[in-house]
Records
---
Amino acid sequence: MPSGLKMLNLPDIPLRSPEYLKTWGSTMIIAPHQDDETLGCGGAITLLCRQQQPVSVLFVSDGTMSHPRSRKYPAEARRSLREEEARAALQTLGVRQDATFLRWPDTRVPMPDSEDFAAAVSGMRMHIQSQQPDTVLVPWRRDPHCDHRAAWQIVQAALQEVPGKVRVVEYPVWVWELAQPGDLPQPGEMQAWRLDIGKVLDVKRQAIAAYPSQTTRLIADDPEGFMLTPEVLAHFTQPYEVYLEPNDDVIP
């Protein structure tokens, strides 16, 4: 039985042109880890930048659990490395504004039942208010990673305390490989659509390559550490990206 978004018929999902991004206006991308922004929406980021629309990126976790057994790269070094990679990737995509790093512990981003959740929401609200985005991109609400789900919860709670209407667009990351049927959009819940990124796909590939700690065995002294396999990367190097929005929020 197929897994993840393989269970959906992608050719049936509407394909929108890059011009559709003009409906987003100024956009803030929320990434649980350093690389989620490029994998999930690197094409959109590049297109937004080329349209000269304001783009800001906020990373939620410190990303240090990708190689927890490495001695050559202890936690502080892993954090610095991943932040350097993130800045290089964003520069490749065309982002000129420096990213924000909240540095919550990787795999322990606060959920609503955590004592740190209120602090996480307060910090997120502050950053959203400082940027005043028209649109916020956040991981799919049931993406099968605890930090991705936590990021969605934090953003939702923060937006309840932000005056005005902010459009929320969700992007899948681990849904492709790990989702169970209950993780997928339910009938009538969301509208999925694809963004044509064919003209900037090469730029997105270059930005993905800016993360050698995640795409190669750069951190070789933790052989069981995380690495994006070619099979996983294939989901993110298509000439389109998939986005999900509540039906009422989608602009025709």
---
Amino acid sequence: MASFLDRVFARPVALGIYGLAAMAIGLVGLIWGDFLAVWQPVPKSLPGRTALAYAVAAVILLAGLALQRKRSAAAGALALTVLYAIGTVALHVPSILAHPAVFQAWSGTAEQVALVAGGMVACAFCMQITPQSAQRTIRIAQIIFGICLLLFGLAHIEYLKATADFVPAWIPPGQKFWAYATAAGHIAAGVAIISGVAARPAAMLLTAMFIVFGLLVHAPLVFADPHAHFNWAANAMNTALIGAAWLIAASIGTAATRSVAPASA
């Protein structure tokens, strides 16, 4: 079982998933000609907003595609990290500064920052830097990602009814139970990853939880209303979080120190 999980959470797989998620984000942006509806909205009054949306979507798509090949993986990882970081600073930080007491501003920012943390791990895996710098970058990314998970868990509690409403009513023992359970799962994973205690299994289980979210919560939204931009954007965002969590899991433990080629040749 251990060797099987090592293969599933190996660097090439994690990088590939993170890149595929970026490609999904890019495709949604190109199809709708807009930024992801689940992110802090870019002002409608911004000059050239539509052209900028297409340009950003195209770059994200190409960066995700670059992660699928060894030769271009470093460029793709760096491009995604920089783009996600710019989105955080330009769109989310001003919201926090304007409304520091509004929890949604913090939890929304955490979604974007989690992708930055995943990108930092991808850069550490792909770029030609010293092992010490790579490990330092990975550890910082793990701590950042863990803090984001704490905010995700608190968001489930703060917005308990909204969280519970997303849970399919047919799943026993009830929607509110799973709202609390997933909040506890996020917080437990965050504590484990930050502390380093049982961090690898926690990151693996977290990745599995995000995959379940996609199957039971997000994918049905697309089938219910395939013409809604938000539904596709939510699926793309959840897939991006899966990719980031996968990278965090791949960065923990002895397997993370092995020299493994990125994605595919």
---
Amino acid sequence: AAENPLVTDYLSALAATYYESALVLQDLGAEAEAAERLHTSITMLERLAQERTPDDLLRLAGAHTILAELEPDNSGVAIEYLQKARDVLLEKIRSMAGDPGPNKARDEYVTAVEQIEQMLRDRTGVKDGTAT
């Protein structure tokens, strides 16, 4: 990826490696190292801009979501991570609005947004539009 920065597949694969290794580190309880790798993955995925694949977008949103999970429940930082995850996917969904017919990637994005919005409701104590 460093030697061939114009080959987006290399950067995408490297970002995926950082993301996947972060998941393993999280499972092992190495949260600081996991967060560091997630931040690296996010930086790489954001550099891909328009060349992102559906997997890249889901990883980008997933990295923000996992970072939120590493924060205390009502943390403002956690809420910001979840909002970033949701916004990345909503932006892509909006850009696909003119695409007719079924679209597996769009359906995955919509499902991911619904899950993130539920996490936001759970973390902010909002149910059915009213605060608890």
---
Amino acid sequence: MPKTSVLKHLSAVNKYFWKYRYRFIAGIFFVMASNYFAVLAPQVTGYIISQVQMHLPGGKPAGTKQVHDVLVENFVNRVENSQISFASLIVLCSVVILLLALIRGLLMFFMRQTIIVMSRHIEYDQKNEVFEHYQKLDLGFYKTHATGDLMNRITEDVSRVRMYVGPAIMYFINLASTIGFCVYYMVKQDAELTLYVLLPLPILTITIYIVNNIIHKKSEKVQKLLSELTTNAQESYSGIRVIKSFVQEKAMLGFFKTNSEAYRKNAVDLAKVEAIFFPSMSLMIGLSTLITILIGGREVLNGTLDVSIIVEFVIYINMLTFPVSALGWTASIIQRAAASQKRLNEFLDTEPAIKDKPLHATETGFINGDIVLQNVSFTYEHTGIKALNHFSLTIKQGQKVLILGRTGSGKSTLAQLLLRFFDPDEGYISVGGKKLPDIPLQVLRESITYIPQDVFLFSDTVGGNISFGLAKKAVAEDIYKAANYAGIDNE
């Protein structure tokens, strides 16, 4: 996937970065601060090596002057002015290195407490956003989209996006700051040697770019197959009574195995491609270390470079090992997140076919009056079945009407049109002289008691299911009264 496409899909989560900007900015600060203290340790180590060289038999001062950060330079000046013993110097430098490690560890703790915690907040917000949008979509949407796919998008896809806004962002900033600090001090120390050491990196960049494109294509396919697998499982669980009644367990297992095998095969292929990253990183880091030792060693023999600088460079290269190796993993996460966010955007950008009228304070309460269906026609878009054809009916206020008809004659369609789950293709429906599109959905549906023919219970108590259709703060008396009306109070 081109870089612009990745950024285009992931730009949908930028609003969350702004919402949690203070955590995000603090996280960036902690990442950079932790890496700053990390690059001071090699300089202190280099200083120790140079001092060891001087105190060896026949030792002499370093051939080249070491370049230090201002903090390390102040430390070196204080140590040299204090004229402490060599043994005390080694102990003091060891303590300083340990202290730098502790400071870095503390900063890394705060780094995770800001960026990773921020990603959990974003995951929470995004799941709520997706779920809220699902509830706004019309019934026609749910007739054309599998439940398993909807579930997969709000779980797996949102989780993969969280990996981007959390770990991927954190490791990318860590990579950028580590490379920035290391390369800066390496160039200040020896620009020519730095150039040789960094030669393998362009090759690494090209490798990552090529493999990333392959990963993205495979990630999209894997996510699609996972949605199909989830749908297969969800439908099997929901229809288990039908499956058992017709003794179709073996057939359903066969369907599941087929989908599962397709998912397994593609997931393994994706894992094989991702496996190219880590050996590539190790190879490039190994080459950089080898170049440092070969070229640096030659200059040491020529007397133009000090051994302490080679030691410092090798430590810098090893510091780059994890961030650079994490580059492939981070790129993979970003590619997967882009594929997942693209799937989420498809739904989040879907507008409900039923446009709701804004609810004003004066419009609260129930509606009443005559119900008029005038020349109503309706065709189910996803099947092409024409359920109603120029149907007209007037129901006077207080009048009871029974509508009979064979299966598929449009009885349920009439109820769904009255609740405005759909809008008619032709004609109109009005209640109390107002056409349904002019009535806010909340007012319309709160004014109608609808008992669907599909049996459905929420994963809740019996009382919870009964009170679902009652007032928000239904008391026990209300629940028992409703149970009595339904004739289940003695069950």
